[in-house]
Amino acid sequence: MSIGCPDLHQPMPTTAPDLFSNDYLSVTTSPRARNAFLKRVTHMPLVFGSGGSRLLTGNKDTHTDFEARITDFFGGPGCIASTAALFNSGYDANLAFWSTIPQKGDAVVFDEFVHASTRDGMAASPLKSLGALYAFKHNSVLSFRERVQQVLQAHPNIANGQGMLFVAVETLYSMEGDYAPLLQLLDAVDELIPKGCAHVMVDEAHTSSLFGPDGRGLLSALGLQGRVHTVLHTFSKGWGMSGAAILTSPLVRRYLVLYSRPLLYTTSLPHAHICGLNTVFDYLAGPDGNALRDRLRKMCNYFEQILETALRHVPPDLLSLLHREIPADYPSKVFSPIFPLISRSPKLLEEFLRPLGYAVTAIPYPTVPRGKEQIRVVLHAGNTEEELDEFVARLLQWVTMMEADEERRQEAPEDNAHPPERAKL
Fold first, then answer.
1. 179: nearest Cα among 207, 148, 201
2. Domain coordinates of the chain in residue numbers?
3. Which residues are within 8 A (CB) of 110 and not within 5 positions of it... i.e. 6 or more apart?
4. pTM of this prediction?
5. Any idea what DSSP says for residue 310?
6. What gap in Å lies between CA 29 and CA 83, rounded to an integer?
7. What is the DSSP letter of 89?
8. What angle do CA 181, 187, 193 make, to 5 degrees?
9. CATH code for residues 293-408
10. What is the phi/psi pair of residue 342, to 5°?
């Protein structure tokens, strides 16, 4: 039986330039990073598996040293989120935090487009059955304020200091390519929620390594480290690896270590993987990383210009670039490497691009809301203007084919447009 979803038996095509992976800074294809890793790993006394979970035999100096490194890197003076807990993935980290930290008497206000891992964590928390989870409209400060006021009325214990109001947002949303209005949201938190009764958790999955000094993230670039209680940094996007770290208070970290199931019941990262993470941090947290960040920004600016020009006369429902909001109070150098191309026929566009070697996947409902079915283009520091020109030309080729097909259908005889009903047996 044919099922309309991938079975993962076949690898993605790789013959065309990469315009779809999360490898923002082109780390995974960097000869310099590869050579540095191979040189480093040969001097490691342990290379393979860690031998167990962090609480049993899998907490080696490899792990604790790297945890100390990222604590120093992402933490520092003025940071509320001052200590790191290492996880095997961003999914595990979000699941751990949201299923473990909020307790009975607390409530959560979250952006309606937060990642599935955040939603899964909240669904596994005590708050789910208590009806204490409140979504606000995506990136709407007005909706956020209304939700906070609603929560404080429904849960007077929070304002009395007997509970905590958690806030869950992301810096850059992966399907929309837009940014949260962090400064306005944090101002609303300070204004509406009594001091000491709020806990803001920000997911930097898609901005870690891209912004801030040496890639410390968007919060660092905006100077907001002293206003956010917990931060998630994942290593699977710009850092070119996998794994994640939660930066939080020592008390929350200790609670996660003792009670979070995604940390307790899984083998810790292999030694070679930690070696790779150290290599990548050496590579990106310095001049090489700064050059890659600058190049990615230039590629994004170039692509946006040529794409908007190319699509100017294309029917929006056939192919259009989703508007990506960057708050006006953000620095001018903040950019989005994510370009959601909205189409009424994303699957047909995928079927056109795949034979050309592009590793494209149509993103349908319910992964995205109805009307936002898309293919998601993601740029990388390693892309070139020539590659982007070629891709836009292919998009226009597909548009021309689709318009020609539509014209032929409209010119077809009336009888073909309305075939007779099948005779009843």
1. 207
2. 49-269, 293-408
3. 118, 122, 133, 134, 135, 136, 167, 168, 169
4. 0.93
5. H
6. 31
7. -
8. 120
9. 3.90.1150.10
10. -80, 135
Do residues 252 and 101 make contact, with C-beta atoms less than 8 angstroms apart? yes
What lies within 8 Å, CB to CB, of 119 at 6+ separation is none
pLDDT digits (tens, 9 = 90+) for 133-181: 999 999 999 999 999 999 999 999 999 999 999 999 999 999 999 999 9
Query: Tens digits of per-residue pLDDT, 25-72?
Result: 999 999 999 999 999 999 999 999 999 999 999 999 999 999 999 999
CATH number of 49-269: 3.40.640.10
- Distance in angstroms (rounded) separating the CA atoms of residues 125 and 111: 17
> What length does the chain have?
425
Phi, psi (rounded to 5 degrees) for 227: -120, 0
- Do domains 49-269 and 293-408 share one topology? The answer is no
**Cβ atoms of 273 and 241 closer than 8 Å:** yes
| Alpha helix ranges (H) inside 110-199 | 116-123, 127-130, 141-154, 156-159, 182-192
Question: Strands 83-87 and 165-170: what pairing?
Answer: unpaired
Amino acid at 354: R
